[in-house]
């Protein structure tokens, strides 16, 4: 391969007006001479090019952003006597390989060559939060969802409907939320919560070897404490998503699409935000418990999007987000 002439080395002398370095993934992109800031997308990660800086956290700790409700609910789980040995038994029965099969049967593995822009987004989320890259799968599924599971080695699965619905920035937000579960050390308990949820109502659970441990977990109150925690853990990961996309409105619009489905293009975003604020205002402390009980009983894997967007707005408006962005 011929060596570049020193004056052609773009890594030290970017040609101003002709190339723009992606603030997210670092790829250098050739742009037209009449390029206007923000009016083109990166060829690698497909995110919008911009002159704005993008912060990568050198030393982010989960306690820097974890939501107080997540902390409180996790403490309640950990206070149950015998929790660790019960969960260990549950996960011993399923094992890492069973979980991987359950989560990724019929899924496509995302690699630097397979869906490279998705892989680049995973890399951005991991580099920003400081997390080792997990395996990422894309699964054909009409339900707009994504999840993270595993025991020793976490994996992330994105449903096809999610990718089809969201734009590139919103897809980054969802991936960053999932990477947040890894960073916040949720994965083991989250996997246990999903397993319990999946097995608890299945009649064949009586026939499979894990049924005794499921009965034990339900009887010791661990199932409800764990499921309650798993919904509140989502609020921490919405914050992690914000730390990666670094624009609260990307999170807001993602939630709007989750709430409004295919009609999201016709929904007024400002009114949606207002609805979120009003929703939160109406729920004082005494109503909060009832709210979470409703969410639990409704069998949702995530809290309502309206609630989530209100929580993210509050995180920004109290100045907590900005303080963390300025730290280090
Ligand atoms: Zn890029
Ligand atoms: Zn989540």
Features:
two-stranded antiparallel ribbon; binds zinc ion; four-stranded mixed beta sheet; single chain; alpha+beta; 328 residues; 13 helices; disordered N terminus
Structure notes:
This protein has 328 residues and is α+β, with helices and mostly antiparallel strands. It folds into 2 domains: 14-49; 62-326, no CATH class. Helices cover 54% and strands 7% of the residues. The chain has 13 helices and 6 strands. The chain has helices at residues 68-78, 83-104, 116-129, 160-165, 168-183, 187-200, 211-219, 222-245, 248-260, 269-282, 285-298, 305-317, 320-326; strands at residues 19-21, 28-30, 107-110, 135-139, 146-149, 155-159. The chain has a 4-stranded mixed beta sheet with strand order 3-4-6-5, sandwiched between helices. Strands 1-2 form a two-stranded antiparallel sheet. α2 (83-104) packs across α7 (211-219). Mean pLDDT is 83; it is low at 1-15. One zinc ion binds at residues 22, 24-25, 27, 42, 44-45, 47.
**Rg (C-alpha, Å):** 21 Å
Main beta sheet: 4 strands, mixed
Class of secondary structure makeup: alpha+beta
Give the % helix: 40-55%
Number of domains: 2
Number of helices: 13
Number of strands: 6
Q: Unreliable runs, pLDDT <50, ≥5 residues?
A: 1-15
Which ligands accompany this protein? zinc ion
Overall form: globular
Mean pLDDT: 83
* Relative strand content: 5-15%
Order of helices and strands: EEHHEHEEEHHHHHHHHHH
Order of adjacent strands in the largest pleated sheet: 3-4-6-5
N- and C-termini, Cα separation: 41 Å
What is the strand and helix layout of this fold?
Elements: E1 19-21, E2 28-30, H1 68-78, H2 83-104, E3 107-110, H3 116-129, E4 135-139, E5 146-149, E6 155-159, H4 160-165, H5 168-183, H6 187-200, H7 211-219, H8 222-245, H9 248-260, H10 269-282, H11 285-298, H12 305-317, H13 320-326
Parallel strand pairs: 4-6
Antiparallel strand pairs: 1-2, 3-4, 5-6
Helix pairs in contact: 1-8, 2-7, 3-5, 3-8, 5-8, 5-9, 6-8, 8-11, 8-12, 9-12, 10-12
Bound molecules: zinc ion (ZN) (2 copies).
């Amino acid at each position: 391969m011929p060596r570049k002439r020193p004056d052609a080395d773009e890594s030290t002398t970017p040609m101003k007006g002709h190339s723009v370095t992606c603030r997210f993934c670092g790829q250098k992109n050739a742009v037209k001479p009449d390029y206007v800031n923000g009016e083109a997308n990166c060829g690698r990660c497909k995110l919008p090019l911009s002159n704005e800086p993008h912060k990568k956290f050198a030393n982010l700790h989960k306690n820097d952003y974890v939501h107080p409700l997540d902390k409180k609910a996790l403490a309640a789980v950990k206070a149950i006597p015998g929790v660790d040995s019960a969960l260990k038994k549950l996960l011993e029965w399923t094992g890492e390989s069973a979980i991987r099969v359950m989560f990724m049967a019929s899924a496509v593995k995302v690699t630097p060559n397979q869906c490279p822009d998705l892989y680049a987004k995973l890399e951005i989320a991991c580099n920003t939060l400081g997390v080792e890259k997990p395996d990422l799968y894309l699964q054909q599924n009409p339900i707009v969802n994504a999840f993270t599971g595993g025991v020793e080695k976490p994996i992330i699965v994105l449903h096809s409907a999610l990718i089809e619905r969201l734009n590139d920035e919103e897809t980054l937000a969802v991936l960053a939320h999932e990477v947040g579960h890894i960073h916040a050390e949720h994965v083991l308990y989250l996997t246990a919560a999903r397993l319990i949820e999946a097995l608890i109502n299945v009649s064949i659970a009586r026939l499979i070897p894990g049924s005794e441990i499921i009965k034990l977990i339900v009887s010791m109150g661990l199932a409800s404490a764990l499921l309650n925690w798993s919904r509140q853990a989502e609020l921490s990961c919405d914050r992690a998503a914000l730390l990666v996309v670094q624009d609260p409105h990307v999170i807001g619009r993602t939630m709007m699409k989750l709430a409004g489905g295919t009609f999201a293009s016709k929904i007024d975003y400002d009114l949606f935000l207002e609805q979120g604020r009003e929703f939160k205002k109406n729920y004082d402390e005494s109503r909060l418990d009832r709210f979470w009980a409703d969410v639990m009983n409704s069998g949702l894997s995530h809290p309502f999007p309206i609630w989530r967007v209100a929580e993210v707005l509050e995180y920004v408006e109290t100045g907590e987000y900005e303080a963390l962005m300025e730290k280090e």
